[in-house]
Design brief:
Elements (H helix, E strand, L loop, with lengths): L1 H7 L2 H28 L13 E7 L6 E4 L6 E3 L12 H5 L8 E4 L8 E6 L2 E6 L2 E2 L24 E4 L5 E2 L30
Parallel strand pairs: 1-4
Antiparallel strand pairs: 1-2, 3-8, 5-6, 6-7, 8-9
């Protein structure tokens, strides 16, 4: 029956089916690639978006804190006002702003609704719950939190909790429990870095 059916199918139809199938597969692959490229990264730091800046969270001994998509810790500065940055010049060299590269997305425990940007020299700086975000030049890579509690440039630098509050407890590899605080408070001025393994 298979051969008799194929014998009755006109040649242009026989030729058109593989071509149409190829075009359909190409279109579906293109749509999947576009969708995957615009989706927020999920999972660990190896899932960094190539189309924008990702803010996600990682567990630390002082509580979960925000990182970029590669696992590098981000900080807030107690001297900044809401949706503004007072850090420039030498401050911005030691505490480089987290700049928006394309679309800014949230992953893990970070909340997309809390993400934003502010204008500054050189482009747009990423904010979270109104706090301008920064890296610390002294962190050598993912999992390092050596800027935690620093008081350089006249005010404290804190890791940021997924709730948008500052974490005033030290972060270390010990796994000790600590809490977050919405206002500046006493906290350890140093911490040892951890690694995401």
């Amino acid at each position: 029956m298979g051969k008799s059916f194929l014998a009755r199918v006109p040649f242009p139809v026989k030729l058109g089916v593989p071509v149409a199938s190829g075009l359909l597969a190409a279109a579906c692959g293109s749509a999947a690639a576009t969708s995957a490229g615009s989706a927020p990264a999920s999972g660990g730091p190896s899932n960094v978006s190539t189309t924008g800046t990702v803010i996600e969270s990682h567990a630390g001994s002082g509580g979960a804190f925000l990182t970029d998509g590669s696992g590098r810790a981000v900080y807030l500065w107690a001297k900044d006002g809401m949706n503004m940055s007072a850090c420039s010049g030498a401050c911005a060299s030691t505490w480089p702003p987290v700049m928006a590269n394309g679309h800014v997305t949230a992953s893990g425990g970070a909340k997309a609704a809390d993400l934003g940007t502010i204008s500054r020299s050189g482009g747009k700086q990423v904010t979270y719950d109104g706090h301008a975000l920064y890296y610390f030049a002294g962190d050598s890579g993912p999992g390092q939190t050596s800027g935690q509690g620093s008081d350089s440039f006249g005010a404290k630098w804190w890791l940021v909790a997924p709730a948008g509050t500052q974490i005033t407890a030290a972060d270390s590899a010990t796994g000790a429990s600590a809490s977050t605080a919405p206002a500046a408070g006493a906290g350890s001025s140093s911490s040892s870095g951890t690694s995401w393994g």
